[in-house]
Write a structure and sequence with these properties.
The complex is a heterodimer of chains A (414) and B (375). Helix content of chain A is 42%, strand content 14%. With 414 residues, chain A is α+β, with helices and mostly antiparallel strands. In chain A, helix 5 packs antiparallel against helix 6, helix 8 packs antiparallel against helix 9 and helix 10 packs antiparallel against helix 12. Chain A is built from twelve helices and ten strands. Chain B is an alpha+beta fold. Chain B has a four-stranded mixed β-sheet, with helices on one face. A four-stranded antiparallel β-sheet of chain B has the order 2-3-7-6, with no helix packed on it. In chain B, strand 2 and strand 3 form a beta hairpin. In chain B, helix 4 packs across helix 7, helix 5 packs antiparallel against helix 6 and helix 5 runs antiparallel to helix 7. The chains are: A alpha+beta (414), B alpha+beta (375).
Chain lengths: 414, 375
């Protein structure tokens, strides 16, 4: 049990710190440190463009996808070095948001199932942010039930012809490539007829339609496929093995631990420390302190849980589904914290404008965005199922469609 | 960074688990709970023989000299097994007090006796309702003798010696408090066992009447030693709580797998699964906070006060949460005396109060975080 850096870790930290001090886009520091969930945006500049510039600079210095092998654009760093980098990158890490799906999910899947040629061609550009990747899994009829997806891919010579629709695709509107799971055989049970591909998002027949979200922003999209041609060489894994390939993707998502998980705690602690109420500073109030303490131990618990996972990873152990607790805990926290901060603002809590209100409207935006956190990437309920079944070993839910050929599953005509 | 116990420490945990599984089955806990004995003397002797009582006591004082990380893993197992022995009062409180503030002679007298299982110690801090506070200490010390009443005192009726917090001044400052050592067999103190929520661990009232006592540490330093003691004990107790929480979660999980209703194991119903998943989340958060506390304790880091409060809060919540929902998963059987669920429920709620209540530690955590932020 040791929290201190080893001499090597300390040297790495110093190197990272010095590089960041010399290269970070400091003009955005103040804006970034004020932005929390739901409002990571810059006033004057496009956040994706600023992010790409930062990513490019980091890539030139060898500071992207740190745990990836060097030949694929990484640094060959240890899991702990990656965590150290994230600690040092601090607020500038918020600029990496457009690249996280690529780094955390698409890249590792290509690394596991792509040809050597593909890996050398695509991964370095993914790592450097030159090309952004998105993940095309969810569909209108397959959200939590991902294996219920209907997008069809049919073999035609050396190509596959894809028709269908994806939804909730984060960043599709600025992505260059996508990781796409399709149904290639509807005559077998749902998990067995799936196949994974990657494709150029500028392919003919791909149409991206932004979705306006409940929080007023537009981060995810519907993606329509009309006779889109994908060469068989862009298949990842065997035909019919798409479900297993997707599990690799999801497992890698869990391995991208130490990731920046917003809980809202630093924001509410700072807010309560500075807010004056009629009875003095909010943080002197008994009820407020009890709430803060509860959130504090959840935030620290998550932080140290991720450190435990990193320690396991650095010993060669594979972090398991127990890391599902992160988003489950953080999502509810964000929602509760936002509501409480607004409660402290009283009637003025209703105002959302950025300039004139307490904390510049950040909690209002957090409140509006938090429901998305509790749904995207596995709803709270799906995460509880995962913990119950894969960690605690409880029986799976009764699945009436599990052994039925996909095209015989009742749909009520929808 | 390595945020895990070492292989040797894990081996020690396994050894303790095996030992306790054999020597401290639920039947042994029930024997004390039912009032057949004030504590499990055989188990206490066995713990001494295994070297567990003196694991953090230096070798020169008869201990194993291993350290506090080792004590943490043993504490976890003691909590898991609900060991009905005065371990927390003797080891987390009395031994730590002597290690922190005792002079050479006091160390020589009491530490080997603790390690060998010959002396049970405790801390006499509380005087009725309320949380730890210098103002709440009224018991008077003058001319080396104590007058006043302490309650509740954990394991007070079976203790051989007590560390007593007493008032030695009236300036209204923390320095009005001093610590004393009282040999319970030397007279001047009367112990009366009190009924309590968790009879597997005793609580008592100690009435001091012109009781001769020797100072422990410098006069006026009592509160600062107590504050350190409470932080250290909070981490150790948090490990007990996490051990208990884990066991309660396992009991609930096992029952949910075994019990059939509506033609299927009740663990296949989402209402039950989600309840168990939430218990797992609490227990995991608590364990992670405890690991941080263990690190701070073992290195005596400046982060200890904050880490201890976080571990204490998180572990208290987790144990209470797991123990109450374990009963819920068990349904009617969980509410019987016969099933062991209530043993964990009792222990969870008793340990939640012993070192100061949840709200006390919540308050402390926020104070400490503010202090750090201001620095």
């Amino acid at each position: 049990m040791n929290f201190d850096d080893t001499p090597q870790e300390a040297a790495f930290r110093t190197e990272a710190r010095q590089w960041i001090a010399a290269n970070a886009p400091k003009q955005y520091e103040a804006e970034l440190s004020k932005s929390s969930l739901g409002r990571i945006s810059l006033k004057k500049d496009d956040i994706v463009e600023v992010g790409k510039a930062w990513q490019k600079k980091k890539a030139e210095g060898g500071w992207v996808c740190l745990h990836w092998p060097k030949e694929y654009g990484g640094r060959g760093a240890t899991p702990i070095e990656k965590v150290i980098w994230q600690q040092e990158e601090g607020v500038y890490g918020k600029l990496t948001q457009p690249f996280q799906i690529g780094e955390g999910m698409c890249g590792p899947t290509v690394m596991a199932f792509g040809s050597e040629e593909h890996k050398r061609h695509y991964l370095p550009k993914l790592a450097s942010g030159e090309q952004i990747w998105c993940q095309l899994f969810s569909e209108p009829a397959g959200g939590s039930d991902v294996a219920g997806l209907r997008t069809r891919a049919e073999k035609q010579g050396d190509n596959w012809i894809v028709n269908g629709q994806k939804i909730w695709t984060s960043g599709a509107h600025y992505s260059d490539y996508g990781l796409l799971i399709t149904r290639t055989d509807p005559n077998v049970p749902k998990h067995k007829g799936l196949t994974m591909f990657f494709l150029d998002m500028k392919s003919k027949g791909v149409e991206v339609r932004p979705i306006k979200q409940a929080n007023g922003m537009q981060e995810f999209n519907e993606v329509y496929f009309t006779d889109v041609v994908i060469p068989d060489s862009q298949r990842l894994g065997s035909v019919g093995d798409g479900w297993n390939v997707s599990l690799t993707t999801l497992m890698n998502e869990r391995m991208s631990i130490g990731a920046r998980l917003a809980t809202g705690f630093p924001e509410i602690f700072e807010f309560c420390s500075s807010l004056m109420t009629d009875d003095g500073p909010a943080i002197d109030d008994r009820a407020t302190r009890a709430k803060l303490a509860n959130w504090a131990v959840r935030a620290s618990g998550l932080k140290y849980t991720s450190y435990r996972a990193v320690s396991a990873l650095s010993k060669g152990e594979r972090p398991g589904p127990e890391n599902s607790i992160g988003k489950l805990v953080a999502g509810v926290m964000l929602q509760d914290i936002a509501a409480y901060a607004m409660d402290l603002q009283g009637a003025a809590g209703v105002l959302t404008g950025a300039a004139e209100e307490e904390a510049a409207g950040q909690f209002q935006q957090m409140l509006l965005s938090a429901p998305g956190t509790r749904i995207a990437g596995g709803t709270d309920e799906i995460l509880r199922n995962i913990i119950a079944e894969r960690v605690l070993g409880l029986p799976g839910d009764i699945r009436v469609d599990k052994d039925v050929p996909f095209n015989k599953i009742p749909t009520r005509g929808r | 960074m390595n945020f895990d116990f070492s292989d040797e420490q894990k081996q020690m945990r396994d050894q303790a688990r095996k030992f306790l599984a054999e020597k401290c089955p639920p039947k042994a806990v029930r024997a004390v709970l039912d009032g057949n004995a004030p504590y499990d003397k055989d188990l206490w002797k066995g713990l001494a023989e295994m070297g567990f009582l003196g694991v953090a006591i230096p070798e020169e004082f008869g201990g194993a000299g291993a350290g506090h990380l080792e004590l943490c893993v043993i504490a976890e197992e003691m909590g898991r097994a609900l060991a009905p022995v005065p371990f927390s009062s003797t080891v987390y409180l009395a031994a730590e007090a002597i290690l922190l503030a005792g002079n050479a002679e006091q160390k020589k007298k009491w530490l080997p006796a603790i390690a060998s299982g010959q002396a049970i110690g405790t801390l006499a801090l509380f005087e009725g309702k309320g949380n730890p506070s210098p103002d709440a200490i009224k018991l008077a010390a003058s001319g080396g003798s104590l007058n006043g009443v302490k309650k509740p005192v954990p394991d007070g009726a079976i203790a051989d010696f007590a560390v007593v917090a007493a008032r030695t001044g009236s300036t209204g400052r923390d320095s009005d408090v001093s610590l004393f050592l009282v040999d319970m067999k030397a007279g001047g103190v009367e112990a009366r066992a009190l009924t309590n929520l968790d009879p597997s661990r005793g609580q008592a009232e100690l009435a001091f009447k012109n009781c001769k006592a020797e100072p422990l540490g410098a006069s006026g330093e009592g509160w600062s030693v107590l504050a350190q003691m409470l932080d250290r004990a909070a981490v150790l107790m948090a490990f007990e709580q996490v051990g208990g929480a884990d066991r309660a979660l396992e009991m609930g999980r096992d029952y949910a797998l075994d019990r059939i209703a509506f033609g299927r194991p009740i663990g296949s119903f989402q209402a039950v699964k989600h309840m168990l998943a939430d218990m797992y989340v609490s227990a995991t958060l608590a364990r992670s906070n405890c690991y941080y506390g263990a690190w701070a304790l073992s290195t005596n880091a400046s982060e200890l006060p904050e880490a201890a409060a976080a571990a204490r809060i998180s572990a208290t919540q987790a144990f209470q949460h797991c123990a109450k929902n374990n009963i819920q998963v068990h349904g009617g059987m969980g509410f019987t005396w016969e099933f062991d669920c209530h043993l964990y429920y009792r222990r969870a709620n008793a340990t939640a109060l012993g070192l100061g209540s949840l709200s006390y530690w919540e308050d402390a955590l926020i104070d400490r975080m503010r202090k750090r932020n201001a620095a």
